[in-house]
Amino acid sequence: MSFNFLIGANKTASVLKEFVRNASKKTGGSTKNTSCKVKPKRRGWKVQDGHFVEAGHMLATQRTTRFHPGLNVGFGRNGTLFAMEAGRVVVTCEKFDPNWEHTWVQRLYGGREQQTILKKYFNVIPEPQHQRFKLIDEV
């Protein structure tokens, strides 16, 4: 937007000046809200195969059931696998033989009747106890 003004002491001799008005604010988005990022959930394996765990230790976190509970492993409400006893972690890949009569099996594994379906299982094998004591007498 431009404005024309007549400037001068003498009304007969006037000088024409032009003033240009600029915007007082910049247009565009703000860059001050960069600290509100979503934190990642860090799902997946927490303990590798062969490691020793205590009871209650998390083995894996998941949204969908990628890993299945095996021996001495619990399954949480949110899909978390945890150790129920202290021992060594063993991850196995086992053959899954579903009942093809169920509707949910047909929905999930439809068209895979002739294929071998494998699933990963987390197992916790307890350490063998020591044999340092002998039974001397029974009561």
Automatic annotation (TrEMBL):
GO terms for cellular component: mitochondrial inner membrane; mitochondrial large ribosomal subunit. One of its GO terms (biological process) is translation. Its main location: mitochondrion. It comes from the Eukaryota. Belongs to the bacterial ribosomal protein bL27 family. It is found in: Mitochondrion. One of its GO terms (molecular function) is structural constituent of ribosome. The keyword tRNA processing does not apply. This is Large ribosomal subunit protein bL27m. Keywords: Mitochondrion, Ribonucleoprotein, Ribosomal protein, Transit peptide.
